[in-house]
Amino acid sequence: MSRLTQQSSDDNRFILVAKLDNARNLLNILKAVHFKESATCFVSSNGLKFTVEDAKCVQANAFVQNGIFQEYIFKEESATFRINLNVLLECLNIFGSSKDTGTCTALKMCYAGYGSPLILMLEEGGVLTDCSIQTQEPDETLEFDFSSAEVLNKIIMKSECLKEAFSELDMTSEVLQILMSPDNPYFRLSTFGHAGSTHSDFPKDSDMVESFECQQTQTNRYRISLLKPSTKALQLSSKISIRMDDRGFLSLQYMIINEDGQVCFVEYLCAPDEEVDEEDEEDLS
Amino acid sequence: MRFRAKIVDINCIQHFTRVLGTISRMAKMCALRMTPTKLYFILADNAAVGGVSIWCELTQSNFFDEYRIEGKDETNNIYLELAPDNLARAMKSAGNAQAVKIKLTKKHTPCLTFEITLPSLTSHTRSVVHDVPVGVIPQRNWEEYEEPAMPDFDVSIYMPSLKVVKNVIERMKNLSSFLILAANQNGDMTLGIDTDLAAVTTHFKHLDMPTWEGDNSSQNHNRDPDKMAEARVDVKKLATFLHGQQVNPSRVICNIMHGKAVQFLLLHEDISLQYVIPAVSL
């Protein structure tokens, strides 16, 4: 019997005890939001949410619902702490095991409440690692007020067809312009770099598009440096939902299927960079 | 002073290349001592400033088909100073060589000349020549390169799977510059880091203990078997050793001198390699 599965009387002092047979299921989803050193972790009885923000303009959320864990006990209403994501990822990957080697690292994660460190116990092949990661005072996180009622345009598509477009984004462009429209060209990604402009159009009736609900033509620009990190989530995901609300705020939701076939979600929210002025719109048409 | 040697067996050529590759990853400069029966690669950095020391010993007859040495006096020793990477690069040409001849030559500086004979499709063989400049170490300095005495270690233990250790150390290297290596005589070993951000410790259990003959372990007998001996070392130097070795040793022994140093002994049928990392205090 693995040492991690033994119930220890010590567990009583923790408000959170979560066990996972394959630590990569947590590691991979956290990698999808790892573009800053620190994350804020929200704990509830439904699971964990890790939030990472940059420049007060972009927010990434990784949802690790309780169903991902083999055992999940949380005794309070809620808890919030900030944690160094670099350190957490190194610890989760301490044995460096990968899908290819066919080995799994078992994980037990405990938290005793405000001011306490996050305790990780990892085991692989009889070798045990214990980690105690300091938690920090949580920062206030951004509230984007993104509600589905205000969404004007929404496309759900297979991630496959966006992967190339995002991994080859022209980073000399300051912005990524996204057009969503009920009319041709429906969905267009544009960059304006040193070597010229690029436009990638995605037809609405291809096999790749699962749902296309666009009510009104919207063209918004987003800082490319803020959206580029979302490529990490895109690469891991199988489906993506792209939504724009009436203020031009962008929501990218990624459906990620982990090694055990469970579904997890990662979300990127981004504020638009600036209003597109009349002249530019004429250029496009 | 003369030296010439020849390897023809492809397995020996490749093995010798791996040994040179290992040394070149661990040391920028080192001494090469040649005697009628052995070759030694020696690095004796100043431990007081955190330098590692390396002692690697090869039996010449396991590698060479011809081997002739004439030193300055009847001891028949030659000591050279060289960059092992240059030797490793010379041997890179010998991946499928029919023969490698190594000679001490006098060009405009003393050189170890590698003459590598490569097969070709025609009846003429091709040959590649590398001249590796070396410095000859005068006899009055030889004593700096003597074999280090077996240290008075507190605990001697076989290392766990190097693959696992390498992964763990690679992660810990990203978290801290120093690592605490500890072990006891009950087969327990821990690798740990402790910083403001996190404390991480990996525990290995049920490791084998080597048996030592002679008196250098005499003080271990009255030691409490559960008592850990530990040394805080530069994690990069540990990683250099683990990643540098290309000889796939059958076993690696780790000797800990509490608070002073860690010695690794890499055991392989044809070669033996010692690597000593001094401990760093807080």
Automatic annotation (TrEMBL), chain A:
GO terms for biological process: DNA damage checkpoint signaling; DNA repair. It comes from the Eukaryota. Keywords: DNA damage, DNA repair, Hydrolase, Nucleus. GO terms for cellular component: checkpoint clamp complex. GO terms for molecular function: hydrolase activity. It is found in: Nucleus. InterPro entries: Cell_cycle_checkpoint_Rad1, DNA_clamp_sf, Rad1_Rec1_Rad17. Component of the 9-1-1 cell-cycle checkpoint response complex that plays a major role in DNA repair. The 9-1-1 complex is recruited to DNA lesion upon damage by the RAD17-replication factor C (RFC) clamp loader complex. Acts then as a sliding clamp platform on DNA for several proteins involved in long-patch base excision repair (LP-BER). Belongs to the rad1 family. Component of the toroidal 9-1-1 (RAD9-RAD1-HUS1) complex, composed of RAD9A, RAD1 and HUS1. The 9-1-1 complex associates with LIG1, POLB, FEN1, RAD17, HDAC1, RPA1 and RPA2. The 9-1-1 complex associates with the RAD17-RFC complex. RAD1 interacts with POLB, FEN1, HUS1, HUS1B, RAD9A and RAD9B. Interacts with DNAJC7. Interacts with RHNO1; interaction is direct. This is Cell cycle checkpoint protein RAD1. It comes from Desmophyllum pertusum.
UniProtKB/TrEMBL annotation, chain B:
It is found in: Cytoplasm, Cytosol; Nucleus. The keyword 4Fe-4S does not apply. Keywords: Cytoplasm, DNA damage, Nucleus. GO terms for cellular component: checkpoint clamp complex; cytosol; nucleolus; site of double-strand break. The keyword Lipid biosynthesis does not apply. Its main location: cytoplasm. It comes from the Eukaryota. SUPFAM superfamilies: DNA clamp. One of its GO terms (biological process) is mitotic intra-S DNA damage checkpoint signaling. Belongs to the HUS1 family. Component of the 9-1-1 cell-cycle checkpoint response complex that plays a major role in DNA repair. The 9-1-1 complex is recruited to DNA lesion upon damage by the RAD17-replication factor C (RFC) clamp loader complex. Acts then as a sliding clamp platform on DNA for several proteins involved in long-patch base excision repair (LP-BER). Component of the toroidal 9-1-1 (RAD9-RAD1-HUS1) complex, composed of RAD9A, RAD1 and HUS1. The 9-1-1 complex associates with LIG1, POLB, FEN1, RAD17, HDAC1, RPA1 and RPA2. The 9-1-1 complex associates with the RAD17-RFC complex. HUS1 interacts with POLB, HDAC1, FEN1, PCNA and RAD9B. HUS1 does not interact with RAD17. Interacts with DNAJC7. This is Checkpoint protein. It comes from Desmophyllum pertusum. The lineage of its organism: Eukaryota, Metazoa, Cnidaria, Anthozoa, Hexacorallia.
